[in-house]
Amino acid sequence: LETHLSRSVDGKEFFVDAAVGLQWIFGTLPVDGGEFELWHRFDRNHNHAQFSPTDPDLVLFAEENHPDPITGLRFPIVDRMWLIRRNEAPRPVFDTPTRVTHEWWDMDGQHVWCVWDNDAWRTNIETQEVEKVAWPAHCWHAHVSRDGDYMVSDSNERFYRGCPSSVYFLNRRTG
Description:
By secondary structure, the chain is mainly β.
């Protein structure tokens, strides 16, 4: 049901992204056992929701590929990275639909990361300015250390569960 159970920076809630029947629902569950608060309901697969590391009312999430369980039709990713603020409608990170992979928050809460081809992109969520960090080969996933100095990525010819991968490490200060 849940893909990325994350806790709010103030420690008061968990964010839930769950498939329920033919819908995907987003909301919060208070740590104290209070009632679920619905944030949004989708008719297609959105998941990988992650609370901002600095703002308890902001969440990064992804549009995902999915098949319709009744018709078998496949719906590809059109615009991968989105943000949702409590009590507001979701909005894409980029003005132009952008298909990237593996999104995550930068610890400053003002940037989000993703992967595109041979690059990891660090994107400002307000200005959409992108800093690109190049890798020696195509990567599917990457991540950065809490201080932002060190990165890791995986690389393979075709991504599937259990595929063999190469792993790359990068010191952003020294290259």
